[in-house]
Amino acid sequence: MEDIPKPQRLRCSVQNYNWGRTGEESTVAVLFSRNNPIDPEKPYAEFWIGTHPSGPSSLLSLGSSDSRPVLLKSWILENPSAVLGDKVSEKWHGDLPFLFKVLSVAKALSIQAHPDKELAKVLHEMNPSVYKDSNHKPEMAIALTEFKALCGFVGIEELKDVLTSVPEIRDMIGDEHIGKYMSIKETDPYDETKVVLQSIYTKLMSTSEEAVSKSVSKLKHRLNIESKVRMLTEKEELALQLEQQYPNDIGVISSFFFNFVKLIPGEALHIGANEPHAYISGECVECMATSDNVVRAGLTPKYKDVQTLCSMLAYKQGYPEILLGTPLNNNVSRYIPPFDEFEVDHISLSPGESVSCPAVLGPSIFVVVTGEGSIQMCCATDEDKITVGDVYFVPAKNEIKLTSGGTGETQVYRAGVNSRLFNFVPAKSEETDLQ
């Protein structure tokens, strides 16, 4: 009989970026506190689950307090085919292909994009201290609370309205560039509209710091006066909010170029290579390819690489796709982005309810976000108690059963390799088991 590696409970890492929520106000801190002390004065921004060297997970069940912890990546490398499954191990060279996170956002993140694989390799070779790996970073965010973000360029007609109604932008870009954009039609080929949009966005982002500071000051002064005689638009309110967080920053002005997305809990947003975005506020579960490559150009004290960002963007226009999740049964919804590396299941159990998660051909990671209950491995009779912050790594071909405790609802999220890699696309099911 095949020897299948057993599931392992993990100790995970956090990132204390200054945009995170503080102390116990942060879901990230609450999850982290399951196995670690937290500082109530520090921001807790991201809870990392995976093998990336910037925040690696380790196995709680192996090693001891007086010995060096066993890293998840090291454990996988001892027998990658058995842990990851043959197909996953071969495709991703023995490494876990996804990085699973929870984010607690109190303050806007940078205006950014993630490079495709080809550009990621070049950036890593040129500047490894900033671009820390050579992988691409497609990602998906599933809202835990109301979650606000900027994502992708607005449509052609909306951007025309921006160019004519925001005088500070007109002054920064100039009449010649604006005139070229105003002549664009919805029916024009993408390649043609891309060239014009790239020219005006690059002109905006390349404005000198002194000129940006003056434009942001003018915008703030104008909107504060106009707010006394009319109701400001959501984008105008957002610009004032961003100015408070990042005074004199080009991101305040460039926010008018992007779609303002507001997700309710359960809605998801996926972001591919070279798509501009910035998370504004809220808490979410996030999954991505195993990478930390970010090209930034605004709303950040970190290194800004404006030239690279402006040259790499796809410049697609229109509102992004919002995923609602495909119900697999009464307890499980699956979010399937157009990327091979990952998918995410949301498992919701009322008190006393159970769900079986059958063996799959790739690895899975389970994180308990709310509630408590138990987890039963494979055909074992024993159960492990689980509570908020518990994280389990489940190797390929392991079946597990989750049961909610006797009080409130239990919410668990599972990340795994995209089912389409195994030629499996889920259909809606009324069965109790996860199909």
Q: Which structural traits does this protein have?
A:
13 helices, nine-stranded antiparallel sheet, alpha+beta, single chain, about 425 residues
- Biggest β-sheet: count, sense, barrel? 9 strands, antiparallel
Strand content: 25-35%
Helix count from the secondary structure assignment: 13
Low-confidence stretches: 428-435
Structural class: alpha+beta
Portion in helices:
25-40%
Give the averaged pLDDT, no decimals: 92
General shape:
elongated
Please list the strands of the largest sheet in the order they lie side by side.
7-6-1-24-21-26-19-18-17
Give the oligomeric state of the chains in this entry, treating copies of one chain as homo and distinct chains as hetero.
single chain
The rounded distance between the terminal residues' Cα atoms is 24 Å
- Tell me the radius of gyration: 23 Å
Number-wise, the strands total 26
Question: How would you describe this structure to a colleague?
Answer:
The protein is of the alpha+beta class and 435 residues long. Helix 7 (167-173) runs antiparallel to helix 10 (209-226) and helix 9 packs antiparallel against helix 13 (306-312). The chain has 13 helices and 26 strands. Strand 22 (372-377) and strand 23 form a beta hairpin. The strands form five sheets. It has a nine-stranded antiparallel beta sheet. Strands 2, 5, 8, 10, 11, 12, 13, 14 and 16 form a nine-stranded antiparallel beta sheet that branches. The radius of gyration is 23 Å and the shape is elongated. Mean pLDDT is 92; it is low at 428-435. The chain has helices spanning 27-32, 72-78, 80-84, 86-91, 117-126, 156-165, 167-173, 175-182, 190-205, 209-226, 234-245, 250-254, 306-312; strands at residues 8-11, 13-15, 21-22, 43-44, 46-49, 58-59, 70-71, 98-105, 111-113, 139-143, 147-153, 258-263, 268-271, 277-289, 295-298, 322-323, 326-327, 332-335, 343-349, 354-357, 364-370, 372-377, 383-387, 391-394, 400-404, 410-416. Belongs to the mannose-6-phosphate isomerase type 1 family. Its cofactor is Zn(2+). Its EC number is 5.3.1.8.
